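Lab notebook, bench 4. The sequencing result for the construct came back, and we need a structural model before the next group meeting so we can plan mutations. Quick request posted to the team channel:

Model the 3D structure of this chain.
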Amino acid sequence: MKAKLKVLLPGFSGNMDDVVIYYNSKLNKYIVRRKVKPKFTPEHSLTQQMHAFRRRISVTDGYLDDCRRYIELFNRHFRRQGRAMNTWPNVYMKIMRALVKAFPDVDFTTLTREEVLERDLPCKSIAAAVEAGYLEKVPGWESLVSLI
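Done. Here's the predicted structure in C-alpha cell form:
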C-alpha cells in the first residue's frame, strides 16, 4: 500500500494509529505504510552461520566496497520503480541465500575462502553472483570483481 500525502509536517516520522510514517533517504521521499506485527520465524541458525562465515574468513574490504557500489548502481537503475537497497549485508545475504538454494550441500561452518575459490562458487565476487543470476543485472556490474 502506497499512500501519497499532499501536506506532511516537515520532519515528522513515527507511528500514528495503524500506520507508520518515515523518510527514506535512498528514495528521497516519505513512506506511509500499514503497521504490521512481525510474523513468527522459527529458526535463524542458517543466517547465524552465514554471518559467522563472513566473520571467520574476514571478507575483504574490496568485496564490501563492491557490495556498496552494487547498491549505488541498483538504486540508480531501479529508482523509478521505487526499489532500493540500503546496506551491504542486504547484498551479502541475498547472495548467500541463493548459494544455499543452488548448492544445498554447502556447509558454512566448515567452508573456507580457499574452498570458495577452489570450487569456483558464484559468491566469490559480485560479478560472478550477477552472472549466476543471484543478483539482478545493473549497468556497470562487470567491474565488481574483487574476491571474497
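The chain has a mean pLDDT of 85.
Will bring this to the meeting.
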